[in-house]
Amino acid sequence: MELKNAFAIALRKTRLQRALTQEDFGIISSRTYLSTLERGLRNVTLEKASELAGRMGVHPLSLLVQTFLIAEPGTDFDSLFKRIRHEIDADPHVSAAPQDS
């Protein structure tokens, strides 16, 4: 499945779970634009995905993780996060470990 179609499913599902209408996004996005995203007709930018997630009260990564779980049906949540943890831990410039304050 194309990522834009998987994102469309994740976006619509999350919006409906939160009992939001497309009109509820009017401050950050037109109903027409949101509709094109939910139908998989357009790609979303990271900036817009972050704004949409914020309006729904979820972390942008929640939308992206859902997107990849939908796009790759054989992938499960735990194995995806194990892979992400491994890749981040392997990067010396990024740390997934909690920071001391």
UniProtKB/TrEMBL annotation:
InterPro entries xref list: Cro/C1-type_HTH, Lambda_DNA-bd_dom_sf
Highest taxon in the source lineage: Bacteria
PROSITE patterns recorded: HTH_CROC1
Matching Pfam families: HTH_3
MF terms in GO: DNA binding
Domain HTH cro/C1-type positions: 11-64
Listed name of the protein: XRE family transcriptional regulator
High-level lineage: Bacteria, Pseudomonadati, Pseudomonadota, Gammaproteobacteria, Pseudomonadales
